[in-house]
């Protein structure tokens, strides 16, 4: 039986969520409540529309020429795509069969590490890990949850054979101070691009 995904929307020719021109799928559901979130309508895990991998791939392949010409591919974003790890894994497998580069844009808030997470990472060409704030107290005020799970996921990724880009949003008064910038410089060599 095919896994059903729940998506909010997609962007056919994105240029900021991974290398090249990308087909970005915004998955429904997120457990963080970032004060600066620009996709608040993706938070509800029951919202959006249901879709199969086959239906999504019909959309994706129509943009293959643009992706191939630019060194692009697909990006699973959100909301939080990792909440639907089985679906994203199956979608990325289908993309790899078509020779399409895959990118997981995640906040790293992983609740449990089961084989599905490993299987997803095996078909992920790039992880863009969004670090909201290194100071846990500020992180909790900024997004509503601790940063421990995100940092645990960063540690987990450092042991995997997957390329990682660290991303963060500079928010005046929240993530633009010298301590935050210094902490990003310290963490980047351990978890950054390989």
UniProtKB/TrEMBL annotation:
GO terms for biological process: glucose metabolic process. Residues 16-194 form the Radical SAM core domain. Signal peptide: none annotated. Pfam families: Radical_SAM. Keywords: 4Fe-4S, Carbohydrate metabolism, Glucose metabolism, Iron, Iron-sulfur, Lyase, Metal-binding, Oxidoreductase, Pyruvate, S-adenosyl-L-methionine. SUPFAM superfamilies: Radical SAM enzymes. InterPro entries: Aldolase_TIM (IPR013785), Organic_radical-activating (IPR034457), PFL1_activating (IPR012838), Radical_activat_CS (IPR001989), rSAM (IPR007197), rSAM_sf (IPR058240). One of its GO terms (molecular function) is 4 iron, 4 sulfur cluster binding. Its cofactor is [4Fe-4S] cluster. Activation of pyruvate formate-lyase 1 under anaerobic conditions by generation of an organic free radical, using S-adenosylmethionine and reduced flavodoxin as cosubstrates to produce 5'-deoxy-adenosine. Belongs to the organic radical-activating enzymes family. This is Pyruvate formate-lyase 1-activating enzyme. It comes from Kluyvera cryocrescens (Kluyvera citrophila). The gene is pflA_1.
